[in-house]
Amino acid sequence: MKEGVTKPLALAIFAAAFGSSLLFGWNIGVINQPQNVMGHWIRDVKCKRLMDADAPRDDTYEKWCDKRPVENDTIKMYPPDQAPKNEIDPGFGDVAPNPDLNALWSFIVAIFAIGGLIGALASGWLVTKYGRKGTLMMNTGLGLIAVALLAFPYLARSYEMLFVGRFLMGVNCGINSGIPAMYFSEISPLHLRGAIGSLHQLFITIGIFLSSIFGLYPILGSEDLWPVLFALAVVPIIVQLMTLPLVPESPKYLYLDKGDEAAAQRALAKFRGTEDNHEEMAEMKKESDQIKSEPKVTIRDVFTNKFLRKVTIIAILLMVMQQFSGINAIMFYSTRIFNSCGLTAEAASYATIGLNAVNVAMTLVSVVLVEKAGRKTLLLVGFIGMGASMVLLAVFMLQTGAGKVSETEPIVENPRKVWAAPLSAVMVFLGVIFFATGPGSVPWFMISEMVPQSSRGIATSLAVGTNWLCTFIVGQAFPPLQEALKENVFFVFASILALSALYTWKFVPETKGKTLEQVRAELQQTL
User: Fold this and answer.
1) Where are the alpha helices (DSSP H) in 92-192?
2) How far apart are CA 199 and CA 221, in angstroms?
3) What pLDDT score does 79 carry?
4) Range of the domain at 361
5) Residue 145 · residue 168 · CB < 8 Å
6) Which 3 state secondary structure label does DSSP give 90?
7) CA-CA distance, 329 to 334, in Å (whole number)?
8) Tell me: the pLDDT tens digits for 372-382?
9) Ranges for the Major facilitator superfamily (MFS) profile domain (predicted)?
10) Which CATH number do you get for residue 106?
């Protein structure tokens, strides 16, 4: 008889997903909507400091305090009719280009990814020493400190607090990015492992979606309320602090890492709702005996042992393929493409929120499909579907000129080609749909289905750390690449997706319904 989802199992999933996965997604998206308002605030803080110091009216003063209207700025300020009333110069609209302001904003964005990389690399040691649940509980303390720093820079008039807060929140999210999927994989029944593992990505997308809604200017994205937007991150942290202590630690961690068979038996009985768990306990005992018969795994062994090296490389490359799939490029161009379809700037912004909603919906669909179609199949469908969408998107955008950077150039150069604009929008939605189908969710939990318990913490930290590193690389490399190639940048991503599909087909194992021992035996045949 197959076990279902018991109340303790459901509570554990909710506690980790809402408190960690959703928090991760929220902090990915929370910075996007209010960036114009925050750019103004940083500028005003710098100007106020210069005025208080009686600084000379030199170039530095003009850079931060002069408010000449301009056509474009990297950090685009809101239109004059929506400009805030502030204590320095009421009623100004767009401001003069300020390279230092753009550099500060780039630093705020980059410091989050750097923190994420540090947190991800530290997570392997943390989960081995303190457990899956234990690490998530410890991480809430760091999250609370980060929220405090992010919620009060406005009152303190200190953008430096914003820097530190984003860095610490990045560390928090780096830890949160891999551990929930590992925890879910280890507490789930075999036949539900993929579906429950996919919930990590589902809650990430929900977090991104919610932050895009709450971050709208009429809601919490205004000059007075953006600190409240950042402070809302405390909600999932408090929920996790209230719920996670009520559920057990991972039985596999208790048995295989701590050697406490009795505690593992109790935890498993609570998750399954029955004491009759002989088959799962026997599987853990078999793995425990194997771990005891082998030397303790070090990071060096992960690269020298043939089997461990192979599964670690697969786990790392799954993360590389996810981040280099072009999903960030699609999101970058989405508003511009929606504009080319005749939508106003405000309507295009709401259409982009709709795109995030589609991401949530299709990730939910993948939760169901992953146990029916399998992991490898969803990855292949996702990579191939995204590749085809990228090619067609580039073709249609070339027809409409939607890749132009300057807002003053016509979007559709030839009215007879206006048909290409809505088709570009369709390709944007298809790209997101195919990403959510497999590449978005599968890599997170597939690590735990391939990598043995003895090296799981190390392999997870390396794979998730690579994910954050790739996020940083894409964020830094994409703007100049887009500037040079414009619409043709999607052909680059299509090529990467073709290689990703080929690698997945040839080297990535299908783990659906298989024990770790079965996956290991299958992979060792190809060593």
Assistant:
1) 99-130, 132-151, 153-156, 159-176, 179-187
2) 28
3) 40
4) 296-526
5) yes
6) coil
7) 8
8) 999 999 999 99
9) 13-512
10) 1.20.1250.20
Whether residues 205 and 329 fall in one domain: no
Which residue type, as a one-letter code, is found at position 461?
S
pLDDT of residue 414: 54
Burial class (CB in 10 A: 0-12, 13-18, 19+), 481: middle
Q: Which residues of the chain have pLDDT under 70?
A: 1-3, 66-97, 332-333, 336, 340-343, 345, 401-418, 527
Instruction: Look at residue 415 in the predicted model and tell me its pLDDT.
Output: 56
Length of the chain: 527
Residue 450 to residue 521: CA distance in whole angstroms: 11
452 in any annotated domain: yes
- Is the sign of the CA dihedral 133, 444, 119, 284 positive or negative? positive
**What would the two tokens of residue 184 be?**
């879910």
Q: Do 192 and 372 touch, CB atoms closer than 8 A? A: no
Residue 160: how many other CB atoms lie within 10 Å: 11
Same domain, 190 and 327: no
> Are 119 and 204 found together in one domain?
yes
What per-residue confidence (pLDDT) applies to 75?
A: 39
Instruction: Give a yes or no: residue 73 inside a domain.
Output: no
Contact (CB, 8 A) for 26 and 236: yes
Q: Tokens for 345?
A: 């700037």
Instruction: Give 50-83 pLDDT, tens digit per residue.
Output: 888 877 777 777 777 865 433 444 334 444 344 4
508 occurs within a structural domain:
yes
Q: Has residue 34 been placed in a domain?
A: yes
Burial of 6 (0-12, 13-18, 19+ CB in 10 A): middle
Q: Which residues contact 289 (CB under 8 A, 6 or more apart)?
A: none
How far, in Å, CA of 130 to CA of 457, rounded? Answer: 11
Question: CA of 108: how far to CAs of 27, 51, 101, 190, in Å?
Answer: 12, 24, 11, 42
Cβ-contact 381, 504 below 8 angstroms: no
404 vs 486: CA distance, rounded Å: 7
